[in-house]
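Researcher: Before we compare anything, I want clean individual predictions. No alignment, no superposition, just each chain on its own. First chain goes here; please echo the sequence and then give the structure tokens.
Model: Echoing the first chain and its structure:
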Amino acid sequence: MTTVETYRTMEEASHAMGGDAAYLGGGTLVMRAVNEGTAPARLIRVTDPGLTQIRASGDRITIGAGVTMADVLASRDLDFLHPVARLIGGPQVRNMATVAGNLFADHPYGDFATALLALDAQVTGAGQSGARPVAEVLRNRDRAGLIAAVEVTRPRDRRAFGFLKVSRVKPKGVSVLSIAAHLPREGGRIRNARVVFGAMGPAPLRSAGAERALEGHAIDARSIADAAAAATEGLEPPTDQIASGWYRREVAGVHLKRLLTEMEQR
């Protein structure tokens, strides 16, 4: 039997967590486990209204852990993330799936985390005052603890950020892979390139090969081809019920080329 415990703050909830408990946010995955009879003995939930708030300070935007994909789509401040949130499931899922939940969702879910890593988002943990890179959470999700908020900086140039979800069923099928790219430019040349793949490893991962091919160059046919050729360097795509690792490796560069070409033509 599973019981639900309710706390006022994330800090209280963090102290209550244990090996027999899971955090209940939007519930898209946890409630499935409940229905299947595989949920842990205790579910922890928090009523702090700050978890569902979106606060902007200049270009820096703080997103509460409990903000849903539907909330993202309703926010003007997060319009640059609308193309990502729009591709997360159908309306029912978007009404439940949360920003923080996406950081812990295993493939084929969690595409939103791919975009957050490309944007170099920062996260604030329960009871913590300082933020840490989202990359740290994705590298060791089992030890990440509870997340209170995610902070992201709005791209200064909307053309610098792009997202692509590759699925077999349109528009809301689960992803074969996803790609997010943040390519700020100075004087027409890319500076601090970030290219991230979802479903090419146990969590979203940066493509060092693609970033190296793009850094310091303009987005043109040559740099796009070089990035596509180097897209899977160092990545070990998994084989699962959706696609084989071989297939993902074969098509990753093709779809990266597609995304970069779209970004070039904006």
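Researcher: Okay. Second chain, same rules.
Model: Second chain and its structure:
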Amino acid sequence: MIYHYPNTTVSALNKALVTIRDTAGSSALGRVLTLVIATEPGAAEEAIIAAEGAAREHPLRVIVLSTVSVSVSGGPHLDGEIRLGGESGPSEVILLTAHGTAADDQEALVTGLLLPDAPVIAWWPGQAPERVAQSSLGRIAARRITDSRAQPAPVEDLSRLSRGYTPGDSDLAWTRLTLWRNQLAAVLDPPASATVTHVDIEGADDSSSVVLLAAWLKLQLQVPVLLLMSTRESGAAGIYRVRLHSATGVVDLHRSLPAPALLNQPDQPAQNVSLPRRSLLECLTEELRHQGADTLYGDVITSGLAQLLSSDGAWDHNENTRIPDGVDPYAYV
């Protein structure tokens, strides 16, 4: 059911929510966390669908906050909507649209609707604040999820995330790497990782996930990492190849969708591995499993990224390639 409350208040919405639950015979007791989604007006539905899907594993209350900086009619005011049951599943969704100066204190708009004694996770599926942990919503959240892929310049946005990183921050561009990291970790058992001399990664030049994977490998292996990044016009999209070079040969993991990825290892037959693109639902569900800080992501976005940008040479913007010091790029062809 969907209930509309134009020109309302947070207190009135809270009372309406209690009344609706009492009438429907439902309860908030089974919900384990509050997910606050900050988005632009009219851009919330994809995020809501993902949140409702994730609620099947993590029953939750979803608060969607959209702000309209200039109120076109009616002066500063708050419009509300409550969704219960049906497609919302085990979640309850509260949509807030704040107009004009009613949007000035986002924390106050949300605080009165939070579940008591439950963790708060904030998510910016689109444009995110410069430093999310210091933002109005970030201050009340134990975890703060952003998506560098949704920013105007995804790769450059990683520098912003690195500068403003606070434990509890996360990036869906990192979560999309889980299958790649699992597969590469299986290949890089301790004996194999000790023999890797250098790595090269191929992917799209607008994919922040490509750079995060390179930073992770740099941090873990402490060897030169070469990024071969192509434009989307050339057919590149996301990550499509990782090669681990060692004295015994090359481990080559190549993904060309929609076919399965192909893993080639020295002295072993080629094998197909599953590396599909992860959906927004899969990534959000994984993020909601963790209430504490993702320490590995913190190390990658700070130390790993810094090492990648400072110790391996300089970007060659003309070729969309990063050439490590002392490495012949033609050896990779």
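Researcher: What stands out in the second chain?
Model: Residues 32 and 132 are 23 Å apart (CA to CA). Additionally, Confidence is low (pLDDT under 50) at residues 312-333.
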